[in-house]
UniProtKB/TrEMBL annotation:
Keywords: Signal. This is Cobalamin-binding protein. Residues 44-292 form the Fe/B12 periplasmic-binding domain. It comes from the Bacteria. Transmembrane segments: none annotated. InterPro entries: ABC_Transporter_SBP, ABC_transptr_periplasmic_BD, Vit_B12_bind_prot.
Length: 303
């Protein structure tokens, strides 16, 4: 009987090297359904949205970011990074010149045209589109897997989920409050049913009065707001945005005005799908609970 041929040591080395290369490859599926695979952790990263910039910093990858979109201002170190354009106009030549080995995009905000063009140039693009508060840690973990930061991603995602569960359990089943969230003043825009802040309002025991509308945002009329009679009106901004509520104070015929429940929330923490969303959720829940207490003290039991 013939003895099996021995595999030369050199060939064994090549086989083991190939096996190790496969094992070391980093792979994850993005929110657009594309699977991105890298042979090694990325060293030159471009971020196409402020929230993706923040998520990268959360993973300790700030020093590897070579380009970011406009308005990438958190953490403060992000303000010093080179700009490569904004959501409606990216400088593709600038991006290519930076020679990134990973581009992290915002699926809807960056747009399919930009994402597809970058992929056509051979760049690995990982697109994120968290559509709920629960999706944020999932995105972080997949991004961490692709970037070789599994441990950091799992630890921070776990902390986020724990705080999200605590806040949801504390507020979700309290008496409902009708909420109008003003996104923009002219035209008058609000949050629709598919926006993750609608999810946040629900977790706080609130009811977005326009949650029945499709999409993420919607343009509405003053008459529609008056008809749905919000008990709390919210907007995001600082003290300079107080005039956002002037129109409602002038109209007067709203429970929110009667209860003096027109509240400015801190900007950014609720408007960007990052780990800071739980801080934004805590502020939101306190605002809704304050309105709930005022309504209760007024003796109004309507929902």
């Amino acid at each position: 009987m013939a003895m099996p041929a021995r595999i030369p040591p050199v060939l064994w080395g090549l086989l083991l090297w190939g096996w190790a290369s496969v094992c070391l490859a980093l792979s994850a599926t993005d929110d657009g359904g594309a699977t991105v695979t890298l042979e090694a952790p990325p060293q030159r990263i471009v971020s196409l949205a402020p929230h993706t910039t923040e998520l990268l910093f959360s993973l300790g990858l700030g020093e590897r970011i070579v380009g970011v979109s406009e308005y990438s201002d958190y953490p403060p170190a992000a303000r010093d990074l080179p700009r490569i354009g904004s959501h409606d106009r990216f400088d593709l030549e600038r991006i290519l010149s930076l020679q990134p080995d990973l581009v992290v995009a915002w699926q809807s905000g960056s747009g399919p045209d930009v994402i597809n063009r970058l992929r056509d140039f051979g760049l690995p693009v990982f697109a994120l589109e968290p559509d709920s508060l629960a999706a944020v840690p999932d995105d972080l973990e997949r991004l961490g897997r692709l970037a070789g930061r599994d441990d950091i991603a799992r630890d921070k995602a776990s902390n986020y989920r724990r705080e999200l569960a605590r806040l949801t359990q504390t507020y979700r089943d309290r008496s409902p409050v009708r909420v109008f969230y003003q996104v923009w003043d002219s035209p008058l825009m609000t949050l629709a049913g598919d926006q993750y802040v609608t999810d946040a309002i629900r977790r706080c025991g609130g009811r977005n009065i326009f949650a029945d509308l499709p999409g993420k945002t919607a343009t509405v009329s003053e008459e529609a707001v008056l008809e749905r009679r919000p008990q709390l009106i919210l907007a995001a901004g600082d003290d300079t945005g107080a005039d956002l509520f002037q129109r409602w104070r002038a109209l007067g015929a709203l429970p929110a005005v009667e209860y003096d429940q027109l509240v400015l929330l801190p900007p950014d923490t609720l408007s960007r799908p990052t780990l800071r969303l739980v801080d934004g959720l805590a502020n939101l829940c306190r605002a809704i609970d304050g309105a709930r207490q005022t309504i209760h003290e007024s003796g109004d039991s309507s929902t």
